[in-house]
Specification:
The complex is a heterotrimer of chains A (279), B (275) and C (296).
Chain A (H helix, E strand, L loop, with lengths): L1 H21 L2 H13 L2 H8 L1 E6 L7 E2 L5 E2 L1 H13 L2 E6 L5 H6 L5 E2 L7 H4 L3 E2 L4 E3 L1 E6 H4 L5 H4 L5 E5 L3 H9 L4 E5 L2 H9 L5 E5 L2 H8 L4 E2 L9 E3 L2 E2 L4 H16 L2 H11 L4 H4 L1
Parallel strand pairs in A: 1-4, 1-5, 9-10, 9-11
Antiparallel strand pairs in A: 2-3, 6-14, 7-13, 8-11, 8-12
Chain B lengths: L15 H29 L9 H4 E3 L4 E3 L1 H31 L4 H15 L3 H16 L3 H26 L3 H9 L4 H31 L11 H12 L2 H35 L2
Antiparallel strand pairs in B: 1-2
Helix pairs in contact in B: 3-4, 3-6, 3-9, 4-6, 5-6, 6-8, 7-8, 8-10, 9-10
Chain C lengths: L13 H23 L11 H4 E4 L4 E4 L1 H31 L4 H15 L3 H20 L1 H7 L2 H11 L5 H28 L3 H9 L4 H31 L11 H12 L2 H32 L1
Helix pairs in contact in C: 3-4, 3-8, 3-10, 3-11, 4-8, 5-8, 8-10, 9-10, 10-12, 11-12
Classes of the chains: A alpha/beta (279), B mainly alpha (275), C mainly alpha (296).
Chain lengths: 279, 275, 296
């Protein structure tokens, strides 16, 4: 009888894997074509609400004291919804699972400072970029001492923290292949590791390293004066929907030429006016 | 876990045809369920790429065979589980003995420890030990995770130990005392050998829990099986394939352990009857 | 605890003294390390605003972010507790059913869930199964079709209605998971009733369903109650894990607050205390329930 139980379990498992493995070719074409027939744009307009996926990255998106989301991406999303004439609904999602969540239809668009990468582009479509962000490195004074080049960090004795699923993870792999890398789910956890002095450096998009180094001058510093990458940031949507993508591309162009995007970028990334809203 | 109906039917064995019908029905339902899920994923337009998975399990070139990332993760999971297991036994036994002493301070300490552990989520305990306690005490990340895990499981293990010791017949204690044995000798030669017999099966199922709970240390950047899965997922977006594979690996490990539990239970029950 | 619970004389034995000494030493060491070795500026005064805060827009006092999270945790646990009890009872009955088919279904379910880590299960449920169920029930359309008043009314029970689909998928995930454990409690409860009861009922001409409903379950229920209540505490604790699928419960809120304030030490300590108070109160209630049941 016990034998029966285990066989039943195993049969079920192998069935699951077998069916999922084999059952793909014929139905796929149908589902693709049906997705094209109704544009996501149409679905959003009918629903009257656009669902936006993002995760907290200071100052792209974060919670203010009242529990509302604020930040650059939140402004962008609000403007986008207003221009589309629909309500907005924010769906905060762990960054490491944000693309699977988009693919499984948990929201209509990712507006979360997502950098374009070829790997991601295999799974989702990107609009034209609406901003550029650079990677920077911020290091612990105690452990990293006076290292000032990337090469100083590229050895097996160095540990680097990055956030799981961010382009920082990829950049670290490319620029610092020899360093030991630790991955955390949350931005706060990576920062805490650095401040606790358990890791040599943190790699993240600016302005986080910049603001951190300013806030904790006694503990951490910026080894490099310049960002070492420049990444295009854009909206990510599901594949196979040209109408939607066209609308988004042109939205970026229009708001770029009117200066709206640059203005807001300036406000969130280089001013301190919003600091009082969060603490 | 039994698979028999309750109350047991008087008939010695079921009519084989009925068994066959039921099993067929079961298989049909399961196939239907799997088919339903598969169709649902098709509707989402998910592109299955199972062929990309084996490289994460193993890699082999002409004459070299090496473990893939997931298998390396499983190794770390085993490592964490084994160390935590030893610590868990130590903490569990100490706490159980503390709880049974005459000293009020000892009982108080054991009590506070158990209430604290059993009334807060393991995830929060791991975060707390990793981010708050470890930096204060200069602990490494790996040990912080292992200690958090052993402290958690130790509280449950101590309950098992205590139940085992309490279950020893009162006469045994009295006999040992009347022989003039010191408490240490009494525990060492009379009580523990008997208690172990009753403790071993539940302790092994605690080990199954330990394997499962060790997945949570992935949240503090320990490269265990779950963390490897998460990293591959974040890199390749093979979400479903990766999670099914990871779940299957855990299942194989825990089912094997559960099998050991059952064999142990049977052996100990058998030997007890022969007394 | 077992030894002489009635005699409470405060006599300090050598063991007591040594334990107290060791404890005091450890505590002193930790405090010493925290004060000197750790280069951290404690700022406990940031915490109260996350528990209770004065909203300047509406001029009223309201729950802070962490308290909001705690409320969501309670709501989530309550609803999944109810759902898990229903599903768990059905599966538990299936486990002892005379039909091999039903037993196989229930055994597969319980075996799969109990042998896989909750974290992995939650990912699978959330991305894979949750979606199918949501699509089947047309939850999205349902939420959008609601009037504002209904939304407000329902938000008392389920939290903000625009996040209802996520709340529901977390709820289902948690319930599916806990139901496997409840099924085992139910099975053990039913099996704890002596076979004599069944035989007596059969002799009275009752069929299986009648016996189960009128004879077995009422008795089994009483024996199961403490275990079920204990399982509810587990639900509260396990609900911390659903923070990985972005439900705004206590753990998630804590991480959000840490992201903006970087005050992880103070906030994790506060969160630990909040969970402890919640579950400890539940544990006390369970113990009381157990005592009352035993007395009857």
């Amino acid at each position: 009888m016990k034998f029966l139980r285990i066989t039943a379990l195993l049969t079920f498992l192998s069935l699951l894997i077998f069916t999922l493995g084999c059952n793909q070719a014929p139905t796929r074409a149908d589902s693709k074509s049906s997705a094209i027939q109704v544009s996501q744009l149409e679905t959003i307009l009918q629903r009257g609400t656009i669902k936006v996926g993002f995760d907290t990255f200071k100052p792209w998106a974060m919670k203010d004291k009242d529990g509302n989301y604020i930040g650059f991406e939140i402004d962008v999303a609000n403007k986008l919804a207003k221009d589309m004439g629909v309500q907005i609904e924010f769906v905060p999602t762990k960054w490491s699972g944000i693309i699977p969540a988009l693919l499984t239809g948990k929201f209509d668009i990712i507006i979360g400072g997502m950098g374009i990468t070829p790997q991601r582009n295999l799974k989702v479509n990107f609009s034209v970029p609406y901003e550029f962000s650079g990677m920077s490195i911020v290091a612990s004074r105690e452990l990293a001492g006076n290292r000032t080049t990337l090469a100083d960090f590229n050895n097996p004795e160095t540990t680097i923290v990055v956030r799981l699923g961010t382009t920082a993870a990829e950049v670290t792999k490319n620029f610092l292949p020899k360093a030991k890398t630790l991955f955390f789910d949350e931005e706060s956890q990576t920062i805490q590791e650095l401040l606790n002095g358990r890791t040599h450096a943190l790699v993240a998009s600016n302005p986080l390293p910049l603001t951190l180094a300013k806030e904790y001058q006694d503990k951490i510093y910026l080894p490099l004066k310049e960002d070492f990458t420049k990444e295009p940031i854009s909206f990510a949507v599901r594949k196979g929907d040209l109408d939607y993508l066209n609308w988004l591309n042109n939205w970026v162009l229009v708001n770029m030429s009117s200066g709206w995007l640059q203005n807001h970028y300036q406000y969130w990334f280089f001013s301190n006016e919003w600091k009082s809203m969060i603490q | 876990m039994s698979i028999n109906s309750y109350p047991p039917s008087g008939k010695p064995a079921r009519f084989p045809v009925a068994t066959l019908v039921d099993t067929t029905k079961y298989l049909l339902v399961m196939t239907g369920l799997v088919w339903f899920l598969a169709v649902g994923t098709e509707r989402l337009g998910y592109n299955w790429q199972w062929y990309r998975i084996p490289q994460y399990l193993w890699q082999h070139t002409e004459h070299d065979f090496s473990c893939g990332l997931l298998m390396q993760g499983l190794g770390v999971t085993f490592q964490i589980t084994c160390i935590s297991m030893v610590l868990m036994l130590f903490i569990g036994l100490t706490t159980a003995l503390l709880r049974m002493t005459d000293s009020w301070a000892a009982r108080g300490v054991a009590r506070v420890y158990m209430e604290l552990i059993r009334n807060s989520p393991l995830l929060i305990q791991i975060f707390f030990i990793y981010f708050v306690v470890a930096p204060i005490l200069d602990m490494s990340g790996f040990w912080a995770a292992v200690i958090a895990l052993s402290l958690f499981e130790g509280a449950y293990a101590s309950e098992i130990f205590r139940a085992g010791i309490v279950s020893i017949d009162k006469g045994q204690w009295e006999a040992a005392k009347s022989l003039g044995m010191a408490p240490y000798a009494m525990y060492r030669h009379i009580i523990l050998p008997q208690a172990i017999r009753r403790i071993l099966p539940p302790l092994t199922s605690q080990a199954v829990s330990l394997v499962k709970d060790s997945a949570l240390v992935s949240t503090v950047a320990i490269m265990d099986l779950t963390q490897q899965g998460r990293m591959i997922d974040a890199e390749t977006f093979l979400t479903f394939e990766i999670w099914f594979t990871v779940a299957a690996i855990y299942l194989v490990v825990t089912l094997t352990l559960s099998g050991v539990v059952r064999i142990l239970e049977r052996r100990f029950n058998g030997s007890q009857q022969s007394f | 605890m077992k030894t002489q619970p009635h005699k409470r004389n405060l006599r300090i034995s050598p063991l007591d003294a040594s334990i107290i000494l060791v404890l005091a030493g450890m505590l002193g060491y930790v405090i010493f390390k925290a004060a000197t070795g750790l280069n951290y500026h404690w700022k406990w005064e940031v915490i109260p605003q996350y528990l209770l805060r004065f909203n300047t827009n509406t001029q009223t006092w309201g729950p802070g972010l962490l308290t909001q999270g705690l409320i969501t945790t309670i709501k989530l646990s309550l609803w999944s507790g109810i759902l898990a009890t229903i599903l768990g009872t059905v599966m538990g009955l299936f486990r002892v059913s005379p039909s091999l088919f039903k037993r196989q279904i229930a055994t597969t379910y319980v075996g799969l869930i109990r042998n896989t880590p909750p974290l992995v299960l939650i990912f699978i449920f959330y991305f894979f199964i949750g979606d199918q169920i949501m699509a089947l029930l047309h939850i999205d359309d349902f939420v959008y079709s609601l009037s504002n008043e209904t939304k407000e009314f329902m938000s008392i029970f389920f939290g903000p209605m625009n996040r209802f689909p996520q709340f529901l998928s977390a709820l289902i995930t948690l319930a599916l998971f806990e139901a496997a454990y409840i099924a085992e409690i139910v099975r053990a409860g039913i099996e704890s009733i002596e076979t004599g009861q069944w035989e007596a009922s059969t002799a009275l001409g009752m069929n299986r369903t009648q016996t189960m409903l009128h004879v077995i379950l009422p008795q089994a229920m009483q024996r199961m109650l403490p275990a079920l209540a204990g399982q509810f505490i587990s639900i509260i604790k396990d609900s911390a894990i659903v923070s990985v699928i972005s439900i705004e419960e206590l753990t998630f809120q804590a991480q959000q607050v840490i992201t903006t304030t970087y005050r992880s030490f103070e906030i994790w300590t506060t969160v630990l205390v909040m969970y402890f108070i919640l579950t400890f109160m539940c544990s006390l209630a369970v113990r009381k329930l157990e005592l009352t049941l035993r007395r009857n």
